[in-house]
Amino acid sequence: MGEQKRKEVIKQETEFIFGKKNFIWMLIGLGVIALGFILMSGGGSDDPNVFNPEIYSWRRIRLAPAVILIGFGIEVYAILLNPNKGK
Predict the structure, then answer these.
(1) Is 29 exposed, middle or buried (0-12, 13-18, 19+ CB in 10 A)?
(2) Using the 8-state DSSP alphabet, how is residue 54 labeled?
(3) DSSP H helical segments within the chain, as ranges?
(4) CA dihedral 52, 57, 61, 67 (to 10 degrees)
């Protein structure tokens, strides 16, 4: 009897925790985070003795961190999304 139960346990299919919808939302979130880091880049100077005030632009100080935080929010949503809800 114990051997039969072990065979039943082995025959059970393994199912992933995340579904296709989760992975799609995760890729979208990663893309938004990457966009935020791209927006944050640049503004430096070729000569270290010359100051470039462009490093303090609105895009690098306000927009890029907000986009990164939105991307992290999308990642949290993707993790918490229930892929079996529609079934």
Answers:
(1) buried
(2) G
(3) 2-11, 20-40, 58, 64-80
(4) -130
10 and 41 Cβ atoms separated by less than 8 Å? no
pLDDT tens-digit map of 35-68: 999 999 987 778 888 888 888 899 999 999 999 9
What is the pTM for the complete model shown?
Answer: 0.77
C-alpha Rg value of the chain to the nearest Å? 23
CA angle 64, 70, 74 (to 5 degrees): 145
Find, among 40, 36, 38, 39, the residue nearest to 72 by Cα. 36
Whether 33 contacts 72, CB under 8 Å: yes
